[in-house]
Amino acid sequence: MSIKPVVSLVAGLPTRDGNRVPLTRLVPGRGQDGGEAFRAMDPFLLMDHFGPMVLPPGTDAGFPPHPHRGFQTLTYLIQGAFRHRDSTGGSGLLRPGGAQLMNAGSGIVHEEMPVAEQLETGGPIEGVQLWINLPRAEKGSAPGYTDLQPESLPWRTLPGGRIRVLAGTLAGVTGPARTPAKIAYAHLELESGARFEHAIPPGWIAAAVPLRGSIRIQDTTVPADSVARLGEGDAVQWEALTPVSLMLLAGEPLREPIAHHGPFVMNTREEIEQTLLDYQQGRLGRLD
């Protein structure tokens, strides 16, 4: 079995989004533009690690109403709580260890904001949001929202650690998130010195993304809040250099044209222009 080597190592870009939420933008990372990252990480479009931070009492830090079209968001919460609302009537409480899968499809407006208790008392918040591209045939699909409660995302024991699978199948576990793009996505926690190895389907891209701690892949050290994109091979393999929390991404590239403008991802500039017009005229939905 041949191990996938690191072909690029990109540091995340510290920034803020929404309503003053500090985060690290991992895809696109530091020095990358959207097109470069989209091609390298296809079918993944964007990845943000928000927090870890402690919200002060009275904060309203969150993600007020905003639109999307043409892809899916998979938001995973490690600490804290968020409440989701969207223009289809979808709503839910995102709790630690839980996730939400939102299909923007033909268009949606949504918000993710702290729960009332955090508005009063403050508290820790940390999570990861991943944007997953939709194939051309699915970009006009009906928008919708799926709650993935922590009970549907149990930890499974690994030698020297544990794994929580959100989508696809890894370590004999199939995650509950269903996406038209063929992907595998998981959160791993490993003790210092632990090793992890797993086969990846032929032709799929793969990446390791430490959130805390660092790993070694062959001769390359991969620090926290960076993305190690992996090359050709049959399997991923790494060793934890410290206690580590990391995300594993793998997926089959769509290899379709991408036109991108802010929260919209389509296949052509004409579709983006139509999307902007549709949003201005309220056809992507409204959130009152």
Topology:
Blueprint: E1 6-11, E2 13-17, E3 21-27, H1 34-41, E4 44-55, E5 63-68, E6 71-79, E7 82-86, E8 91-94, E9 99-103, E10 108-114, H2 116-121, E11 123-133, E12 144-148, E13 156-158, E14 161-167, E15 169-170, E16 173-174, E17 183-190, E18 195-199, E19 205-212, E20 215-217, E21 220-222, E22 226-230, E23 235-240, E24 244-251, E25 259-261, E26 264-266, H3 269-280
Antiparallel strand pairs: 1-22, 2-3, 3-4, 4-11, 5-10, 6-9, 6-11, 7-8, 7-10, 9-12, 13-14, 14-17, 15-16, 17-24, 18-23, 19-22, 19-24, 20-21, 20-23, 25-26
What can you see in these coordinates?
The protein has 288 residues and is mainly β. It contains three helices and 26 strands. The strands form six sheets. The protein has a seven-stranded antiparallel sheet, with no helix packed on it. Strands 2-3-4-11-6-9-12 form a seven-stranded antiparallel sheet. The protein has a single domain, classed as Jelly Rolls (Sandwich), CATH 2.60.120.10.
Query: Would you report the number of β strands?
Result: 26
According to CATH, the homologous superfamily is: Jelly Rolls
Low-pLDDT segments: none
Rg is 18 Å
CATH class: Mainly Beta
Reported for the largest beta sheet, the result is: 7 strands, antiparallel
The fraction of residues in strands falls at over 45%
Q: How many structural domains are formed by the residues?
A: 1
Helix content: under 10%
By DSSP (H or I, 4+ residues per run), the number of helices equals 3
Shape: globular
The secondary-structure class comes to mainly beta
Order of helices and strands, N to C? Answer: EEEHEEEEEEEHEEEEEEEEEEEEEEEEH
What average pLDDT do the residues reach? 94
Termini, distance in Å?
54 Å
| Strand order in the sheet with the most strands | 1-22-19-24-17-14-13
Q: Say what the CATH topology is.
A: Jelly Rolls
